[in-house]
Design a protein that fits this description.
Nucleotidyltransferase, domain 5; 129 residues; 6-stranded mixed β-sheet; alpha/beta; single chain
């Protein structure tokens, strides 16, 4: 199984569509065997589900995510655990332990605008860095 998380400074980056990198975890027998960080090479929003599909990600742990991206992930067969905050490595371990708290209904709206700098908040209330 391959799990990915939008990644920045060890944390789950809170705006999927603006992710510049993902941490990708290869899992065997409920244990992480390798973890690597990949750069999205400037891909944003609608292109990101394709990036994850091309590298054969099965599951995504993320914070905020828009409806279009949720649909594209579902069409790509990628299971989503959204609304997660904190350290990426800890979130993956919690998921493997069956203790990850996530919101299957999370959906950011009104992202048709530019976001401000560090610490701005998107319309759904997720803090961005």
């Amino acid at each position: 199984m391959r799990i990915a998380a939008p990644y920045e400074n060890g944390q789950i980056f809170q705006h999927f569509g603006q992710s510049e990198r993902f941490k990708v975890y290869d899992v065997e027998e409920h244990r992480v065997v390798t973890a690597t960080t990949i750069n999205t090479n400037g891909s944003k929003h609608g292109a990101l589900p394709d990036v994850l599909k091309k590298i054969q990600v099965n599951e995504l742990i993320c914070g905020g995510i828009g409806g279009g991206a949720k649909k594209a992930l579902a069409e790509a067969g990628i299971k989503l655990m959204g609304g997660v905050t904190g350290e990426a490595d800890q979130a993956v371990q919690a998921y493997l332990n069956g203790t990850l708290v996530f919101d299957p209904q999370v959906e950011c709206k009104d992202h048709g605008h530019e976001h401000g700098g560090s610490g701005s908040v998107c319309d759904c209330g997720h803090s961005e860095k």
